Amino acid sequence: MKKFLMLVFAAVLAVSAVCFAEAPKAAEGTQTVQTQAAAAYKTLTPQQAKQRMEQNDKIVVLDVRTQEEFAAGHIPGAVLLPVDLIEAKSEEVAKVLPDKDAEILVYCRSGKRAHRASQALADMGYTNIEHIGGIMDWPYEVVK
User: Fold this and answer.
1) pTM for the full model?
2) How far apart are CA 84 and CA 128, in angstroms?
3) CA 129, CA 115: separation in Å to the nearest integer?
4) Is 33 exposed, middle or buried (0-12, 13-18, 19+ CB in 10 A)?
């Protein structure tokens, strides 16, 4: 039984080594995108986000909630792009966010949709995404 288990373990190890060795050769560009997408956005506290906004007037503050939620109150200067449009890879994404290298702060109500939107943007090639959670945790000014 021990010999059988050792043989199975060795086979799995050999197959894994071959797969990982072949992945960069087979799809070098894809591997890079997948690696970037896995860690393509950072998470900031509201305090860090506020500081970034004060330091960079070109920063994009992206609200990924619904139109109704946005109208009820949003971070000053925020632009609306609902998460559903981002995940559907709508043409609207490129119109609202034409620069894939721009610094983008993403928020929603509680943070869940902002995580989804941040990952979807990373998958679309956006490179400077920072998830800032939800407006529920935003202790600063809100525009209505």
Assistant:
1) 0.73
2) 20
3) 10
4) middle
The Cα 121–Cα 6 span in angstroms is 44
Give yes or no for a contact between 65 and 108, defined as CB atoms under 8 angstroms apart. yes
Q: What is the pLDDT of residue 130?
A: 97
Strands 79-80 and 129-134, bridge-based pairing: unpaired
Q: Tens digit of pLDDT for each residue in 49-68?
A: 999 999 999 999 999 999 99
The DSSP string of 39-51 is T-EEE--HHHHHH
The answer, yes or no, to whether residue 76 has pLDDT greater than 80, is yes
Q: How many CB atoms lie within 10 A of CB 49?
A: 23
Cβ atoms of 124 and 99 closer than 8 Å: no
Q: Is the pLDDT of residue 70 over 70?
A: yes
The closest of 113, 122, 128 to 64, measured between CA atoms, is 113
Structure tokens at 76: 């000053």
pLDDT in tens, 21-34: 443 443 333 333 34
**The token pair that represents 127 in the structure block:** 């490179």
- Going by their DSSP bridges, the two strands 79-80 and 104-108 should be labelled as unpaired
